[in-house]
Amino acid sequence: MYYKKKNETKAEWLKRNGFKQVDDKFVTYVVTGGNTYEIKEQLKQNDCVYNKLLGWHSPQQFDLAGYVFVPIFADDIYIWLPSISTMIEKDEAEAFVKETLKPYQPKREVELASSMTDSEFIGAIGDRLRKIPAVIVGKKEINSKYGLSVLYTFESGNSVLCWFTSAFKDVEVGDTILLSGTIKDKKEYGGQKQTYLTRCLFYPVE
Question: What pTM does this model have?
Answer without folding.
Answer: 0.52
